[in-house]
Amino acid sequence: MKKLTLILSLFSLCMILSAKPVLLSESPCEYMETFVGFDWNEYKSMLTYEELSSDINQLCYYLQNAYADYEGMCGRGFSASELKYQIFVTYSKNEKIDTRAAFKFIADFLEPFISDRHFSIITKTTVFEPVKSSKFFYTNTFVGKSDDSFYLLQSDSENLSKGMKFDGASENLFYYPVKGKNVWRIGIISVENPKILSVQFEGKSFLLPVYDDGAIQTSSIRYHELESDDSIYASLSSFWLPEKGSQFRKGADIVLSKYASLASKYYDKKNIIIDLRGNPGGVGTYSEYLFYSLYTNNKKEFSWKKLSKYSKWFESYISNEKWIESPVTLESYLKFSEMLGFNDAKLSSNLEKSRQKPVRKIFGTQKRKPLEKNKKAFPGKIIILIDRNSLSASENTVVLAKKLFGDNAVIIGEKTGGCCEYWDNIDYMLPDSKVCVHFGSQKNAKPEESELWHGEGFGIYPDYWSIGEDLNDTIFLVTDDSEMKEKLAEIDSRLM
User: Which residues on neighbouring strands pair with residue 23, listed in sequence order?
Assistant: First the structure.
């Protein structure tokens, strides 16, 4: 059985097909058939050298003609000919080659040249990810700021005394206002839990235990609203839109449209709380339509058939992308859009032309107009809850909220996974092994405009760090809504 999968901002695809792009470069390219999705029934666990070599040629073809960061890879030293040479040296004398081991070798070779959290190589048993997500690990030690210095307020370490001056690294301090106006929590950002953190007080080193509460993980689309007099809380576990014909498609359409239409019902609230903890991303259009509506006082409910006004506004003021158009990307877009039930005759026509005269083009969005403050924009607070499993379209939600609403958008929780600079991520299948390579053909430059964005793998840092039982108190700190605080009593352990 063949199946298409991807983590994609579908909005970017719709925009590419409708916007008036700027052609940045154009060059002839090779044409090879493009295989999209995966087919584990035909997966080969062992390969001949000829089969592996053929797949490497296909991999390089995909990268050269569909990967948005291919020029970046080359700038960091990647060479397709060197990859092929290393495969020859390592495997040419082998009669049989273990597929998983060979693609681990390839993943290790590629790792120094990849700076993209979405990028992965997928075998039947293992997913290789060159860029790992870091996480927030915390101590139970808090310091307060006085003038330009920090002093110990409380700690579970018996070796520390209140009032001791902290003279360690600022990168270990995380603003934690639920404990007080000028309070920071000591912690560390790391891929692995270090268990023990060495910190400096009064010129001496102290070892502090490091903790990790884990994070919410979701496996299906779940949406829920809670309302108080002043606030609306909406939790959404995924932005994923299942394929047309899926038993889950109807339900997803309903809940995603409800989320995108929040402004039509709750524009008059003082606070809109959006819980994206554990949300791995998917289709970015829903958040973009929601914030467009809140910014322009649009009260119309979301509909895929009525997006022209929103699309024109977004093209004019917000879009900031570069993308590749080639036989590879056109064919993959066509297959994916058909899977979701979006048929486009123009796309089919462009693909046919591209097959006859293969060309690799790089486009960018048109020059944006200055975004002027809108007096009709939602005047209240937009609170977005995030954690390490908030990825892709969830991170783009935060970036857009900050761009449009500034300090009125308050981000609470821990850092996100860092997976937002590359879009239109598709599983490109290698025809002999059936291994898939997952990457995007579009570079999303919007995160780089936000001071909260710390890069792929590091993600978005919140305005207010808050974990566990402190989360509800931190929300209350922003909203001053005791009725909503009571409704969110169990928010530390689950989506409400």
Answer: 363
